Amino acid sequence: MNATQQVSRPTTDPPIDCAEFSAVLERLLSAWRRLAVPGELSPTAAFTLSRLARDGSSRLTDLANSEHVTQPAMTQLISRLEAQGLAERFRDADDARVVNVRVTAAGETLVASRRAARAAKATELLAALPAAQQAALAMALPALEALAEVSAR
Amino acid sequence: MNATQQVSRPTTDPPIDCAEFSAVLERLLSAWRRLAVPGELSPTAAFTLSRLARDGSSRLTDLANSEHVTQPAMTQLISRLEAQGLAERFRDADDARVVNVRVTAAGETLVASRRAARAAKATELLAALPAAQQAALAMALPALEALAEVSAR
DNA sequence: TATTGTTATACTCTATAACTATA
DNA sequence: TATAGTTATAGAGTATAACAATA
Predict the structure, then answer these.
(1) Is residue B69 scored above 90 in pLDDT?
(2) Model pLDDT, residue A152
(3) Domain ranges, ordered by start, for chain A
(4) How many cross-chain Cβ pairs, A to B, lie less than 8 Å apart?
(5) Which residue numbers in chain A have pLDDT < 70?
(6) Architecture of A41-151 per CATH?
(7) CA distance A98 to chain B (A)
(8) Shortest Cα distance from A55 to chain B (angstroms)?
(9) Of A30, A105, B89, B98, which has the fewest Cβ atoms less than 10 A away?
(10) Measured between beta carbons, which residues in chain B are less than 8 angstroms from residue A119?
């Protein structure tokens, strides 16, 4: 039967154990959750604000979809962020039904400080790894970036 | 002053941009969070159950600490998992105050099916990357694993 | 007296359903 | 009539404080 011979996949034999990769990512996510800056922001709020800071303003509905929460939940989340002075609504010029959201200066400051805090933790954790593993991560950085990109849909 | 010469770090010059790495990881985790298997389990419940399945039984207090929730919150979470037949309490032989928790067979089944679902998603997403990037991720897998390990404290 | 866990209570966040305004 | 968003209400999950049992 020649089952040992890969059939019609020239060079694309699975070079990576997807289940293993998925499991590792889950553990990383679990760990990340724990070193999240406590207090101030809920996970969804943090990701939403971070996204607004990264990608610019966005429609309320789009935010709801991309964070996988309902429209009413996002309405309330944005209201909370607005009350905290971290984000603000503005009407759409073309369609009066639409509500756009953008981060405020205070929001950007907060996002930046949270990022800095996480980067500091990351520095500390990465320093605990042997140089070879650090190098492997450095080499995989573009791939991780690409994966985040394709996963963001 | 010779500031350009690294002082006492022979070969461990930062081989990786920690801020960049942290930012990418944040995006990746944000995306990963959304493709979590929906419904049934809260994030904390899922992580707790997954941990029990991976590392074996654990004290209630340790679970609370490792998931960064309070003891009462973990008490209730375990009660919920117990009511769903996914985990169970058992008393400690040495110390009658202690409550240990373990996953049930049903719990293991659920964890396994969730893992499989995520692995399937991972397979799909990874397949969208060029072979070179897949290879880079495969090479970085042990390092990611080690990072998850050191982050778990 | 300290530690382990539970119960009581209140608050935050989210979902579903019903509603308003605009297209 | 469909779409964008809000309001109303209820439920899940968590925290703080007070408590019970054991060490």
Answers:
(1) yes
(2) 79
(3) 1-34, 41-151
(4) 200
(5) 1-14, 36-39
(6) Orthogonal Bundle (1.10)
(7) 24
(8) 12
(9) A105
(10) 18-19, 22-23
Is there a contact between A151 and B24 if contact means CB atoms under 8 Å apart? Answer: no
pLDDT in the model for residue A141: 95
Q: Which helix (H) or strand (E) holds B109?
A: helix B105-127
Q: Which residue of chain A comes nearest to B21, CA vs CA?
A: A141
Average pLDDT of B58-76? 96
- CA B47, CA A51: separation in Å to the nearest integer? 24
The answer to whether the Cα torsion of B119, B47, B66, A125 is positive or negative is positive
pLDDT for the residue B32:
83
- The pLDDT tens digits of the residues spanning B8-53 come to 444 545 578 999 999 998 888 888 887 767 667 999 999 999 999 9
Q: What sign does the CA torsion over A3, A7, A11, A15 have? A: negative
C-alpha distances in Å from residue A75, one per residue of A49, A51, A69, A103, B34? 14, 16, 10, 15, 19
Query: What pLDDT does A21 receive?
Result: 93
Specify the amino acid at residue A52.
L
B15·A119 Cβ contact <8 A? no
- Map chain A to HEC letters: CCCCCCCCCCCCCCCCCHHHHHHHHHHHHHHHHHCCCCCCCCHHHHHHHHHHHHHCCEEHHHHHHHHCCCHHHHHHHHHHHHHCCCEEEEECCCCCCCEEEEECHHHHHHHHHHHHHHHHHHHHHHHCCCHHHHHHHHHHHHHHHHHHHHHCC
pLDDT of residue B9: 44
In this prediction, residues B54-74 reach a mean pLDDT of 96
